[in-house]
TrEMBL record:
Keywords: Hydrolase, Metal-binding, Signal, Zinc. Residues 230-345 form the Peptidase M20 dimerisation domain. The keyword Metal-binding applies. It comes from Massilia norwichensis. Its cofactor is Zn(2+). Residues 1-22 form the signal peptide. This is M20/M25/M40 family metallo-hydrolase. InterPro entries: ArgE/DapE_CS, Bact_exopeptidase_dim_dom, Peptidase_M20, Peptidase_M20_dimer, Peptidase_M20A. Pfam families: M20_dimer (PF07687), Peptidase_M20 (PF01546).
Length: 448
């Protein structure tokens, strides 16, 4: 399966045109926008302190009390900004803490785009993790430009940026009459199943919004330009089951057939060579083969038994499948099924697929929001914003809402090492990202 390049070239052309539009000469900030920027600068120490407080509360996804405590910390911030807040409970059997929802009070004089802002309260660092929670990294002159810690950039820094952007708007009177909702989920790192429930309120909010902005970490693209996310690949799974005749190994390649392991190897290598498109990947994460195989999905652990003088009769393969859009998914799945059906003698196989996170397709609407974000950044003297290739980011909450509304991700803090003991945040990025976000929100809430 080779590349249908016309669509890819068209997409590249659209990105280039949109960014060219966004990179026109910097325009002046209005007096109100100048006040917004000044408010963010003035409040920078308090913003860093809010980040510190949130990071010192362990909120690993499975630590429900910790997630709720971080939710309470941010809920207090939104209450003080005049938002109506509530905690969304999830069924106890899902073993998740729930989500925080904050909304501007509804008014008949509402104006501008209806915005939903997304963040998450949880981290991958469960209680007992030895990674230091908060570890400033001072420079030679004593300045702290980088902080290491649990979830500093993924994504408690992003949550703080949401608060700081909205606080600046509130201070200059620019929140009045706006229609803004904020959802901070409690299980982004490991979303509860079924996702129709764990993400049901988010989808409902999207259906009554116009634009979604998500504050996962900001990154730099290959050209060294600050970049935001206009597309993300799906997260899905495949399961390959292979059966064969068990027999003495001396008969392999003959009447006894090739066995399940050779058949699995044939299939996987054919996937690698024949199911090829830009942005499409599939990873066989675990494989078990022999005459007795068992796999525990909940524990992601399995066992296998076999002897070297016996032709293996069974193989199980578990893997993930990531695609840019549903058309690409359907092409890949169809070709994979064709490959599976071309069995070696004495063997047979089946492949099954399961979707998890939907893809966030690159759309003209997403590119338009990126162009406006880039223009706001340039107007503030912070330079243009490029686009992150969809295949370079993992799954995120925004993918559940992107099918319904224009969406942009990556508005959060800059840093690196996410999900590792070396996770860090660049301190100046709190101010930079809050300024960009506040200006974008201000302008969107004044558009029809």
């Amino acid at each position: 399966m080779r590349v249908p390049v016309k669509a890819m070239l068209g997409l590249a052309m659209a990105v280039t045109v949109q960014l060219a539009d966004a990179q026109q000469a910097t325009g002046p900030l209005s007096p109100v926008e100048q006040q917004i920027v000044a408010e963010i600068h003035a409040h920078a120490p308090q913003a860093l302190e809010l980040l510190r407080q949130s990071v010192l509360i362990n909120s690993g996804t499975m630590n429900q009390p910790g997630v709720r405590a971080v939710g309470k910390l941010f809920r207090d911030q939104f209450d003080a900004l005049g938002f109506q807040t509530r905690w969304i409970e999830l069924p106890p059997e899902m073993r998740r803490a729930g989500h925080l929802l904050a909304e501007r009070p509804a008014t008949s004089a509402g104006r501008g785009k209806r915005l939903m802002l997304l963040g998450h309260l949880d981290t991958v660092f469960e209680p007992g993790n030895t990674t230091p929670a908060w570890e400033p990294q001072p420079e030679a002159d004593g300045k702290v430009l980088r902080i290491k810690g649990q979830g500093v950039s993924d994504m408690k820094g992003g949550n703080v940026i949401i608060v700081e952007a909205l606080r600046a708007l509130q201070q200059v009177g620019a929140l009045e009459g706006t229609r803004i909702a904020v959802m901070l989920t409690g299980d982004e790192e490991e979303a509860g199943d079924p996702k129709t429930i764990s993400r049901g309120d988010m989808v409902d909010l999207a259906k009554r919004s116009d634009v979604a902005l998500s504050f996962e970490g900001s990154i730099t693209n290959k050209d060294g330009m600050a970049a935001a996310t206009v597309g993300r690949r799906s997260t899905a799974f495949f399961e390959l089951e292979v059966k064969a005749r068990q027999a003495h190994s001396m008969g392999v390649f003959g009447p006894g057939g090739y066995g399940a392991i050779y058949e699995a190897a044939r299939i996987l290598d054919a996937f690698r060579q024949q199911v090829v498109e830009p942005g499409l990947t599939f990873n066989p994460g675990v494989i078990l083969g022999g005459t007795e195989v068992g796999y525990d999905d909940a524990a992601s652990r399995g066992s296998a038994f076999g002897k070297t003088n016996v032709i293996a009769n069974t193989v199980t393969v578990k893997g993930d499948l990531r695609y840019l859009d549903y058309a690409q998914r359907d092409r890949a799945q169809a070709r994979m099924r064709e490959i599976v059906a071309q069995s070696l003698p004495g063997a047979s196989a089946t492949v099954n697929f399961r979707d998890s996170y939907p893809p966030m397709a690159v759309t003209p609407g997403n590119l338009k929001i990126l162009a406006q974000y880039s223009q706001a950044s340039q107007d503030a003297g912070l330079g243009p914003i490029g686009a992150v290739p969809p295949e370079s980011r993992g799954a995120g909450d925004i993918q559940f809402v992107a099918p319904y509304i224009d969406s942009l991700d990556g508005l959060g803090a800059s840093g690196g090492g996410a999900h590792s003991p070396n996770e860090y945040l660049e301190v100046p990025s709190i101010e930079r990202s809050a300024i960009r976000a506040a200006l974008l929100i201000y302008r969107l809430t004044r558009q029809d």
